[in-house]
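Good morning C.,

I know you're traveling, so I'll keep this short. The sequence:
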Amino acid sequence: MTIVTVKEKLHDYIEHADDKKVKALYILLENEIALNASIERGLRDSEKGFERPHEEVMREIRKQYNL
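The tokens, ready to paste straight into the viewer:
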């Protein structure tokens, strides 16, 4: 399926969907965009050496939330 076809199908779906489905689709897309941006920031931080060991982060979370 070409990207043009995908866009046409999405447009058609949105045009005919009820408001609840349109809002749900919008939220899914926004969450995906935010997740991708977060991953990209994390990768850039990692490349710059701004990373912490998993164990350190988990210790901090356990202490913060009394786990």
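Safe travels,
E.
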